Amino acid sequence: MKKMGLKFKISALIVLFLISYVLCLNFAYAQVSPQFLISWKAQNYVPNWYAGKILPIAGAQIDVSFELIDNGKPADLSNAKVRWYINDKLVKNEDSGLGIKKINFIAPNYPGQTIQVRIAIVDFPGAGFIDKIIDIPIVRPEAVINAPYKNGEIKTGKSLFSVLPFFFNTNNNDNFSVQWSVSEQKPESGKGDLFALDLNIDPQMPTGSKISLSVAMSNILKTLETASQTINLTVK
Question: What domains can be seen in the chain, in order of their start residue?
Fold first, then answer.
């Protein structure tokens, strides 16, 4: 009985050792599996204080780059065959050179769609074929009315408003057309600045009166790039 018990203990220890060995191998593999770090940036317009992600619209230039992290540090891809695909179409590969880690292209899609970017490395040492796919959303340009009045409440007399363009394919103010509308009436823009509006409310307007303020913007070089916004104001 003692011999049987000893054999059982030895067998159990062997099984535990094998399980631990397999788990260690899996853990080690997980640790060294190369990881893609991908970044992208659209080159369309936002105000200089904007700290968010610049989202592309149709026709915007997009820059994409990546690093491959292997064993905790950037891998040397100088001799790697890197292939880039945009919406499943091969756009660059080793015929253009080895180790290509960045590309730029013009967004071919339309608002509400996404661009699929795929990066493939066909011969990475120790891993063979590896790839990564990211999706880049395509949005519409935006026009945002800056109305620094709590709850949209304004007094009679003058109130100043401005409009901020986002994501247009131009950073030149001369390329914008701006049209303001106040309760469906065209007002005068402020001091010759199309982006500003001095709204003059008649002192006789009753408290509680509702005013609809709208703005429409477009890129005069690309007529399909338009944006608008409407806000509601209340005279207090």
Answer: 35-137 (2.60.40), 142-235 (2.60.40.10)
**DSSP string of 86-140, one letter each residue:** ETTEEEE-GGG-SS--EEEEE--S-TT-EEEEEEEEEEETTTEEEEEEEEEE---
Interval 106-151: pLDDT, tens: 998 789 999 999 999 998 998 899 999 999 999 999 999 999 999 9
Residues in the chain: 236
How does pLDDT run across 74-116, given as a tens digit for each residue? 999 999 999 999 999 999 999 999 999 999 999 987 899 999 9
Q: For 217, how many CA atoms within 13 A lie in the half-sphere containing its CB?
A: 27
Q: Are 218 and 211 in contact (CB under 8 A)?
A: no
Across the beta sheet with 114-124, the strand order is 89-92, 82-86, 114-124, 128-137
Whole-structure pTM value:
0.77
Q: CB-based contacts of 84: which residues, under 8 Å, 6+ apart? A: 64, 90, 91, 92, 93, 100, 103, 117, 118, 119
Res 9: pLDDT: 52
Q: What is the dihedral of CA 20, 21, 26, 27, to 10 degrees?
A: 70
12 three-class SS? helix
